[in-house]
Amino acid sequence: MAESIQIQLRLLGDDGVTEGAYVEVVGPDTFRLEDTPIWANREGDPLHAGDVIEARQLPDGARLFVRVVERSPMRHYSWVVPRIFVESPEYRRFGVAVEAAGGQWQGAFGGVLWAHVPPESAFDPDAELAARIAAATAGEADA
To answer: Which fold has domain 75-142?
Structure first.
């Protein structure tokens, strides 16, 4: 079984900002991201859950991101969703649907949502999300 740990991930030029990232140790200085990083990410070339990265140890204990060794094969989606949805049972139902399709989901800041779905899956996260948000909104209107 692969070892799972938390590292402090830092990008070059990131002014010392680090982010705790749960990873699977793949090899020396090589890690598979278990979640999508929030702060330690790259505009235009984001890191995603499942990516294998190289990250070298720094003197302060953090790991400096060097490169992506291998991209996750998953299809990646991200959205900013309304709080009414996040606070509804439909939010968790969306996650259950993603997991049932063999995928993974993650939320942050009460409104950022990611889904990672296997490439061979016929599951449509955009359509599922739209239906779940509509259900959450309809439920709120009925209350």
So the answer is: Alpha-Beta Plaits (3.30.70)
Contacts of 99 (CB under 8 A, 6+ apart): 105
**Distance between CA 127 and CA 123 in Å, rounded?**
9
The segment(s) of the chain belonging to CATH 3.30.70 are 75-142
Task: Sort residue 80 into left (φ over 0), alpha (ψ -120 to 50) or beta.
Answer: beta
Q: In the prediction, which pLDDT does 57 show?
A: 95
Q: Write down the pTM of the prediction.
A: 0.82
Short-list 119, 112, 123, 104, CA closest to 32: 104
pLDDT above 70: residue 18: yes
Q: Is 89 helix (H, G, I), strand (E, B) or coil?
A: helix
Partners of 54 in beta bridges? 30, 67
Q: To the nearest whole percent, how much of the chain has pLDDT over 70? A: 89
Q: How far apart are CA 91 and CA 80, in angstroms?
A: 13
